[in-house]
Structure formats: structure tokens, C-alpha cells
From TrEMBL:
Residues 10-45, 110-144 form the CheC-like protein domain. It comes from the Bacteria. The keyword Ribosomal protein does not apply. Pfam families: CheC (PF04509). One of its GO terms (molecular function) is hydrolase activity. This is Chemotaxis protein CheC.
Length: 205
């Protein structure tokens, strides 16, 4: 079990800064890939329990897209990027240069676009974490799930064997001149992984 109670404001500030750097890099990568400018930032980084995570996003029956991958290397973990279905459809429209409302369902093309977006975002956050900590972090090939939030969270816990009630969440906000909506990057660290991250930047946990 991870002793989440040891985390203080300074630890969350470091995680938020890592998230902001990663979000900035992801926004640049998406702009290069699509020719469409969508900004991103990180309003919050926090430690919350599972029920609070569900309430933050919506409810157990909220349909979401979840991109998940395993992180190998010096600080192993499992990471997930979750975005509501309606926000995901809007994001696909924006990135493909289509009028809002063009995509009304998550078809194969939308899944491919969202997988790439999730891959870029999680990869950018992990790259910024590696850069700040000098730790080696290798992401696996991402997998996409399209289901109700409660089912997605339950499957994540079962597949990763994660039995703690709390997790690390980095909220990500997408916005341009006409839209703003949130995505949620959450991390299930293996035992000892957080200690390695903070020790590498000179902060004890």
C-alpha cells in the first residue's frame, strides 16, 4: 500500500508542474499533427479516492473514452486518460477541422484519433516526468476502452491488481477561443514508484 498521507502541498505542486509541462508539449504535438491549435493546461493535481474520481467526472453511468497504458522502467505504474464521450466527439471534430456536431458516435476513425490524442498526452506527461527526474519510463502501446465510467474504473482496478482506494489525478483542460472541457489523467503507481520520483528531485516522501 502507498502511504498517500505523506504527500504534502509541495509534492502536488511538483506533479502539477510536471503535468503543465507535459500538457504544453502535447498541445504543440497536436498542433503539428493536425494543423489545429488547441491549448491545454493543468488546473489541479490531487490525491483522491475512487468515488471522488467518479463524482469529479460525472457518475458511474457516464459514457467515457479511456486510454490506458502500462509504464515500465525505473518508476513503474499504470496510467489512464479519461474524457467524456461528448467532449471526445467535440475534440475529434476540432482536430479534423469539421463543424462541431459532425461526429455523433465513436466509430473506428474517431477511436483511432482519440487513441493518438491519448498517446500524445500521456507520452508528453511521462516525457516531462522523465526529463525532470532523470528516471527511465517506457510506455506500452495504449489501449482504448469505450464504456460507462464505473465499468472502466472497475476494469482498470482488476487488470492492474491495484487495491488501494486512492490514486493520483492530474486534471487536464483543453480550450481554444470557442470551447473548453476537461480530461483526466490518473496514475496507479506501483509500490515505491512515487518515492523514486520525489527522491530524484530532492524531495523526501
Amino acid at each position: 500500500m502507498i502511504n498517500w498521507d505523506n504527500l504534502q502541498a509541495i509534492h502536488l505542486d511538483v506533479l502539477k508542474e510536471i503535468g503543465n509541462i507535459g500538457a504544453g508539449n502535447a498541445a504543440t504535438s497536436l498542433a503539428v499533427m493536425t494543423g489545429k491549435k488547441i491549448d491545454m493546461d493543468v488546473p489541479t493535481a490531487a490525491i483522491i479516492d475512487m468515488q471522488s474520481l467518479i463524482k469529479l467526472i460525472g457518475d458511474e453511468e457516464e459514457v467515457v473514452i479511456c486510454i490506458n497504458l502500462e509504464v515500465l522502467g525505473d518508476s513503474p505504474s499504470n496510467v489512464f486518460f479519461v474524457i467524456k464521450e461528448n467532449s471526445a466527439l467535440t475534440l475529434v471534430d476540432k482536430l479534423m477541422g469539421l463543424p462541431e456536431g459532425s461526429y455523433t458516435s465513436i466509430d473506428e476513425t474517431a477511436q483511432s484519433a482519440l487513441s493518438e490524442i491519448g498517446n500524445i498526452l500521456t507520452g508528453s506527461i511521462l516525457s516531462s516526468m522523465s526529463m525532470m527526474t532523470n528516471l527511465n519510463m517506457k510506455p506500452s502501446v495504449p489501449a482504448l476502452a469505450h464504456d460507462m465510467l464505473g465499468a472502466v474504473i472497475s476494469a482498470a482496478m482488476l487488470e492492474t491488481g491495484y487495491f488501494d482506494d486512492r490514486l493520483l489525478i492530474i486534471e487536464t483542460r483543453f480550450f481554444d477561443e470557442s470551447i473548453a472541457f476537461d480530461g483526466y489523467f490518473f496514475m496507479l503507481p506501483h509500490v515505491g514508484s512515487l518515492e523514486k520520483i520525489f527522491n530524484s528531485v530532492g524531495i523526501e516522501l
